[in-house]
């Protein structure tokens, strides 16, 4: 029988994730796993600085004949913005890639402009075909799956890999980090966002037009080819500095007038709507629990503070929710009534739809990759 339980160290619970497990102290598998991993993956100290300095030196030396030292995928979010800031401090010649899917928070558009100007970085903005992108999004709503951002996530990884390959760039600086996002609730029936087969299977069932122009990354590209065949090396610099959320917002603001969005992934109207309304309403899932738990584990937030913040409303105001919904309905060319009807469909899992067998293998591939690295 289901009994509510919350971790006694972080704020993860079994309300939205029934796969969570607790030990006899009441600690959950999420924070326990991270704490085990941390000594070998997060270096917010002198050792980290030495490792990062050496890596940057290596990048500069290897790329001295090239036009660019590295690629940076830029979403406008705090992590990729801080990567640009850090790359600038190290005097790296960066090529920034941004996917403009038309769903950016206007504040993010301004933030990207400010950062690009201040760091004097070359920016490439890719615009996915609007008709196809909107049709893919509609298909996800109709399929009633939790991950409405799966296409968005897939395309940026594809763009980075493709750009690296086409321009012979040797390094990519990635914003993924232990300090702010070590804990990510995976829930039940999750499918990896790199699963092209899964995205196209959902679209085949619910889409209204053929997908001809949008290119996706596949799971084998992401986990097998990238590890063994790709010449693009991925570096995660934020794991080699003391990456504090409040301090980084302050530094970015002082540096170029960067404005914070008030929450992780609110740089896109789609992900803000997803995290603040769709997931909590439909699945009882509150992504802030993962984010705050990550901050608790990295020593940037107390558990009491996280519990207090979880009591705050998800959307800042009803007006903002209404305007986001209207924006998304217009984006897809449907009425608000239609959008509401999709939101109210019985919830499904991602894994209710066809997906690649490699999903089962990806944890093994990840382990293998770590050994190779
Ligand atoms: Zn925990």
Strands, count: 5
How does the overall form come out from the CA principal axes? globular
Largest sheet: 5 strands, parallel
CATH-assigned fold name of the domain at 44-264 and 347-372: Rossmann fold
CATH architecture of the domain at 44-264 and 347-372: 3-Layer(aba) Sandwich
What binds here, in terms of ligands, is: zinc ion
Order of helices and strands: HHEHEHEHHEHHHEHHHHHHH
| Helix vs. strand class | mainly alpha
Segments where pLDDT lies below 50 for 5+ residues?
A: none
Secondary structure tally, helices:
16
Helix content, binned percent: 40-55%
Integer average pLDDT: 93
Widest β-sheet, arrangement of strands: 3-2-1-4-5
CATH superfamily of the domain at 44-264 and 347-372: HUPs
Calculate Rg over CA atoms: 20 Å
CATH class of the domain at 44-264 and 347-372: Alpha Beta
TL;DR of this structure?
With 373 residues, the chain is mainly alpha-helical.
Overall description:
This protein is mainly alpha-helical and 373 residues long. The protein has a domain at 44-264 and 347-372: HUPs (Rossmann fold), CATH 3.40.50.620. Helices cover 52% and strands 6% of the residues. It contains 16 helices and 5 strands. The protein has helices spanning 29-41, 46-62, 78-89, 106-119, 130-143, 150-166, 178-181, 196-206, 219-228, 245-256, 269-283, 288-297, 303-310, 318-332, 336-343, 358-372, and strands spanning 70-73, 94-99, 122-126, 171-173, 233-235. Strands 3-2-1-4-5 form a 5-stranded parallel β-sheet, with helices on both faces. α11 crosses α14. The chain is globular. The model has no long low-confidence stretch (mean pLDDT 93). Bound molecules: zinc ion (ZN). Zinc ion binds at residues 7, 9-10, 12, 27-28, 30-31. Zinc ion is lined by residues 7, 9-10, 12, 27-28, 30-31.
């Amino acid at each position: 029988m289901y009994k509510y339980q919350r971790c006694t160290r972080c704020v993860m619970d079994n309300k939205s994730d029934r796969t969570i497990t607790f030990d006899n102290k009441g600690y959950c598998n999420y924070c326990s796993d991270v704490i085990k991993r941390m000594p070998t993956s997060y270096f917010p100290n002198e050792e980290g600085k030495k490792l990062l300095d050496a890596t940057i030196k290596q990048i500069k030396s290897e790329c001295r004949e090239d036009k660019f030292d590295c690629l940076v995928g830029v979403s406008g979010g705090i992590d990729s913005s801080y990567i640009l800031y850090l790359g600038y401090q190290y005097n790296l010649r960066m090529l920034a890639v941004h996917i403009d899917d038309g769903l950016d928070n206007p504040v993010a558009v301004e933030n990207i402009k400010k950062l690009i100007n201040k760091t004097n970085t070359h920016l490439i903005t890719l615009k996915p075909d609007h008709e196809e992108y909107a049709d893919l999004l509609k298909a996800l709503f109709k399929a009633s799956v939790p991950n409405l951002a799966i296409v968005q996530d897939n395309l940026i990884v594809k763009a980075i890999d493709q750009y690296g390959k086409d321009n012979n760039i040797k390094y990519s600086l990635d914003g993924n980090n232990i300090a702010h996002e070590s804990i990510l609730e995976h829930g039940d029936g999750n499918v990896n966002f790199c699963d092209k087969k899964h995205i196209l299977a959902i679209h085949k069932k619910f889409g209204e037009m053929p997908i001809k122009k949008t290119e996706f990354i596949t799971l084998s590209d992401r986990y097998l080819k990238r590890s063994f065949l790709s010449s693009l090396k991925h570096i995660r610099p934020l794991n080699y500095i003391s990456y504090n959320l409040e301090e980084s917002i302050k530094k970015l603001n002082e540096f170029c007038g960067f404005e914070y969005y008030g929450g992780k992934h609110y740089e896109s109207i789609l992900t803000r709507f997803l995290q603040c309304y769709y997931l909590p309403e439909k699945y009882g899932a509150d992504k802030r629990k993962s984010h705050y738990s990550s901050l608790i584990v990295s020593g940037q937030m107390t558990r009491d503070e996280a519990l207090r913040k979880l009591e705050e409303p998800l959307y800042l105001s009803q007006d903002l929710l209404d305007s986001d919904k209207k924006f998304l309905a217009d984006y897809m060319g449907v009425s608000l009534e239609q959008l509401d009807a999709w939101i109210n469909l019985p919830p499904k899992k991602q894994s209710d739809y066809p997906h690649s067998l490699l999903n089962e293998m990806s944890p093994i591939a990840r382990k293998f990759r770590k050994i190779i690295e």
